[in-house]
Each structure stands twice: as structure tokens, then as C-alpha cells.
């Protein structure tokens, strides 16, 4: 995969051209998972209700993509990216503590 910085730069360039974004985001998730010693895999295992889309957003956060950039990639608004986190958090909280 090369260096993470080079890979992230390539991902940003490719995503801005909107070519094969799903495959690039999947590769980014793999890279982030490796970089952080399996963190995304552990999160996915612990929080089963998270979608692949949720994990992609997490990977983008980990690599310092802005909320506006993430919203653009998912064809939505920055406020919907923020709003999406709250229901997932509340559901996981209820499942863990009740």
C-alpha cells in the first residue's frame, strides 16, 4: 500500500474525481484498520448495528477528512453526518447498559 500519507493523498485525489469511490473507501478502511491495529474490526464486532457506510465515515475521520468533504462523498449535508452519529450512539448505549 505504500506510506499512509501517500495513500491518503491518492484517495483524496481519486475521490474528488468520483471514480470507483466504493473500492477506494474500502481500501481506506483496510489501511486505517491496519494503521490502528484492527480498531475498525473491533468496533464492527462490538457494535453490530454499524453499517459499512458508518465504518467508512470513521475511516475518513481517522484520516482527517473534513465533515464537509465526508458529506460531499456521501452526497449529503454536513448536518446529516452529525445527526447520523446520535441515533447509532444512543442505540449502542441502550444495548450495552440495559
Structural overview:
- This protein has helices at 4-16, 21-35, 39-46, 52-62, 67-73, 78-97.
- With 98 residues, it is mainly alpha-helical.
- The termini are far apart.
- The mean pLDDT is 77.
List its salient traits.
single chain, 98 residues, mainly alpha, globular
Write the layout of secondary structure elements.
Layout: H1 4-16, H2 21-35, H3 39-46, H4 52-62, H5 67-73, H6 78-97
Helix pairs in contact: 1-2, 2-4, 5-6
Largest sheet: none
> What oligomeric state best describes the polypeptide chains here?
single chain
Order of helices and strands: HHHHHH
Radius of gyration: 14 Å
Number of strands: 0
Sheet-strand content, in percent, reads under 5%
Poorly predicted spans = none
From the spread of the alpha carbons, the general shape counts as globular
**Helical stretch tally:** 6
- Give the helix level as a range of percent: over 70%
Compact description:
With 98 residues, the chain is an all-alpha fold.
